[in-house]
């Protein structure tokens, strides 16, 4: 993996150091997201990713979806008071070092999450602005987009839109790299500290290029395009790996490199389950880069 361009294959991951211990002191992350009964996206993808990256995963459920690799068959939101209650239960006892949001569904839930984010002063808040599932089902009500940009983004350290989400947020069409950059600047103007505009929907491309904008400059994170239909949950998995890296104390650029490696491994080592868009392989990273728990003898050692 390189910034600007390059390949992931065969490289050792030098960005992730061993946690001091898997007992006291293990980093905790919180995901505030919807349930995907099919296990490839949503809360399930987030918790699997946290676990693979030696971060203790906790969750606040925003909605229950009846979903599999063929599509979303039902969406049942959780009352906003219950979302707040779940967040408080986790925050007051387990002190998450990083927090991720995924499917938030309604303006009411977004308001509740933003209010708690401000209350706890979360410094590592990753907002994945989930809007529409790959099959077309709405996971965020259209009228909630305004609450997302006005209430949640000013509190976030990073937001990770895909191209259609960036188009919906900004009202711009994005076809070229310079239009991606304009959209990232526009999103950054709402107060979020970093924008990562993902390239998974770019189409007709040799590389999947994710663009980071930090308010002053752009960095590209690129990996070879993987020709596969098993892409269900790529966005959730990518943002969860980024959150896990931040929970582990990485800088944002280090955590992004980790996330890019994690999703690349998850795409190139397919599970081939389900008859539609199958899930990515959350074991892929550790199968590619080694076993987090056995290989590293001390915290000074560099992992994998
Ligand atoms: N076919 C692919 N080959 C390589 N990388 C990919 C591919 N598809 C997606 N990615 C990478 O996966 C990550 C997620 O990007 P993507 O744009 O697919 O998110 P998403 O649309 O939000 O995902 P989803 O809605 O399915 O959860 C990014 O790092 C992107 O570059
Ligand atoms: C619950 C849930 N969250 C996010 C996504 C986006 O992939 C999905 N399909 N389902």
Automatic annotation (TrEMBL):
Pyridoxamine kinase/Phosphomethylpyrimidine kinase domain span: 36-281
What EC number(s) has UniProt assigned to this enzyme? 2.7.1.49, 2.7.4.7
Coiled coil location:
none
Q: Where is this region: Disordered?
A: 1-23
InterPro entries named in the record: HMP/HMP-P_kinase_dom (IPR004399), PM/HMP-P_kinase-1 (IPR013749), Ribokinase-like (IPR029056)
Which chemical reaction does it catalyze? 4-amino-5-hydroxymethyl-2-methylpyrimidine + ATP = 4-amino-2-methyl-5-(phosphooxymethyl)pyrimidine + ADP + H(+); 4-amino-2-methyl-5-(phosphooxymethyl)pyrimidine + ATP = 4-amino-2-methyl-5-(diphosphooxymethyl)pyrimidine + ADP
Query: Any keyword ATP-binding?
Result: yes
Keyword vocabulary terms for this entry = ATP-binding, Kinase, Nucleotide-binding, Thiamine biosynthesis, Transferase
Q: Name one GO molecular function term.
A: hydroxymethylpyrimidine kinase activity
Q: Pathway listed for it?
A: Cofactor biosynthesis; thiamine diphosphate biosynthesis; 4-amino-2-methyl-5-diphosphomethylpyrimidine from 5-amino-1-(5-phospho-D-ribosyl)imidazole: step 2/3; Cofactor biosynthesis; thiamine diphosphate biosynthesis; 4-amino-2-methyl-5-diphosphomethylpyrimidine from 5-amino-1-(5-phospho-D-ribosyl)imidazole: step 3/3
The answer to whether the entry has keyword Manganese is no
Output the GO biological process annotations, alphabetical, semicolon-separated: thiamine biosynthetic process
Q: Which GO terms describe its cellular component?
A: cytosol
Cited PANTHER family = HYDROXYMETHYLPYRIMIDINE_PHOSPHOMETHYLPYRIMIDINE KINASE THI20-RELATED, PHOSPHOMETHYLPYRIMIDINE KINASE
Q: Which NCBIfam families match?
A: HMP-P_kinase
The entry's protein name is: Hydroxymethylpyrimidine/phosphomethylpyrimidine kinase
Which organism does this sequence originate in?
Answer: Paenibacillus lutrae
Gene name of the record = thiD
